[in-house]
Amino acid sequence: MGAKETIAEGKAVLGIEFGSTRIKAVLIDESHRPIAGGDYTWENRLENGIWTYHLEDVWKGLAACYASMKRDVFDRYGVKLSKLAALGVSGMMHGYLAFDRDKNLLVPFRTWRNTMTERASDRLTELFSYHIPQRWSVAHLYQAVLNGEEHVARIDFLTTLAGYVHWKLTGEKVLGIGDASGMFPIDEKTRNYRADHIASFQVDPVIAGLNLDLMKILPKPLSAGQRAGYLTEDGARCLDPEGDLIPGIPLCPPEGDAGTGMVATNSVAAGSGNVSAGTSIFAMIVMDHFFSHIHRELDLLTTADGKPVAMAHCNNGTSDLNAWVQLFADYNRLAGIEMDMDSLYGKLYEEALAGEADCGGLISYNYLSGEHVTGCSLGRPMQVRRPEDHFTLANFMRSNLYSSMATLKIGMDILLKEEGVPLERMYAHGGLFKTRGVGQRFMAAALNTPVSLLATASEGGSWGIAVLAAYMLTESMARPDLATYLKKEVFCRMETKTMTPDPEDVEGFERYMQDYREGLALERLAGERLQSRRQD
To answer: Which three-class secondary structure state does DSSP give residue 27?
Structure first.
């Protein structure tokens, strides 16, 4: 069946992901191939010291993204989109979206990027003997209690961004198990929140005196393949204000960007891993079981079907690198040089390949916000070099690219070297890998592991959640497990390009990291001494 017929007969599947800088929609056919797409650019705000997005921006962006995709469908195929076989929503994990019983938002959305929950993270990690990162939803909730915030007593529902959008589209208070595992620890056997941790939370002296039942306010975890509700009339109008979209479309469980990234890179089987590099950067390895040691640099999450996952997550990825590229774009404008941003990125990234393996001694810190992995509570981007270091454009760009991966490497070294978790190959996706052969090569050096790119790498989580929605449509009695489905139905004919680590790059990255670790004291000091001038 051609794409036009697939769309006209309502057999196409739509995936929508709320990323940190872009809301993206991908429409796929029955062979999981993207046949149309749309997007909308948005940005987080720093208001009163809180990284946030306004909820009106969520709905404005969703409608604009859908309209962009709808226009793409009409321009390509001459068909007005009105029917879908299935739909899925993904979004940035963690954070804090708290609502009262009248569905009112109690406090502005606190995103994963906020690092003001250190006390809560420490106390909960000790209480559970299980690492609870600062960005997790339960850490934000516990910190609100520690702060004496009056809204806590009125919480009726607590969810993530994907869970919120799904709730408004369907009326269902549910969450994909992968996204739920970033709110509260998951039991790998029951595929629900860990009962022992729930009990410990409820009897904790800080919580015991409050009218706060955690199991009642958290969304219900669902695994891949389960149906998670249907698009309501109001939900259809949120997506398509023009009124063409017919309600009643089944939705898969809403998932986090980590879970959809694993799907998009065929990394849901034990021993597989993937790395996603964008505004934030994280890498995950699927395991046979959770390890017992507490490593504050690592998260324990799950795949979309509930398998244990170890994750190294860093708040700061490519944002500072992007700022430097924009600086060169400003120079081009001043000099009257016409060059689009994609070409500029490509030239600067390729120039980094000519740099020395250790960046000639140049060190970059890409911290726009705090970073828990290295104990930096505030972000202050820095460039550091000795007078005798080789300050060239190639070394400068290479240093900035290394910097986007450096904190991730610190976490992954614990996982690979200390815990000895087996890893044969990493699959990569995200904007950092768009220029072929650059980010991929440096990531292989950072992890000392082959790194593969799939043909769908640029589609990312929006394609991943569309695949999960398609998986839901398979007959439940004959449905294979998710790993088998991806291997045999989705990735069986997909192009893969792999780069193995270059020994000189590996050695150079290790030398870079020696200086990077030693200079972290400067980064922490900058955060302490250089206070923000912003008053909003």
So the answer is: strand
Please give the residue range of the domain that contains residue 373. 319-455+500-529
- The label of the residue with tokens 């790395």 reads 275
In a domain, 442, yes or no: yes
For helices 341-352 and 393-413, the axis angle rounded to 10 degrees is 80
pLDDT value for 113: 85
Question: Looking at the 3D structure of the chain, how many domains does it have?
Answer: 1
Beta strand 426-429 with 273-277 is parallel
Instruction: Encode pLDDT of 283-337 as tens digits.
Output: 999 998 888 788 888 889 999 999 999 989 898 999 999 999 999 999 999 999 9
CA distance 50 to 469: 33
Residue 459 has pLDDT above 80, yes or no: no
Sheet holding 496-499, edge to edge: 299-302, 308-314, 281-286, 273-277, 426-429, 451-454, 496-499
Identify the helix (H) or strand (E) that includes residue 23: strand 22-28
CATH of the domain at 397: 3.30.420.40
Contact 61, 42 (CB under 8 A): yes
Nearest to 313 by CA among 335, 268, 282: 282
Asked if pLDDT for residue 457 goes beyond 60, the answer is no
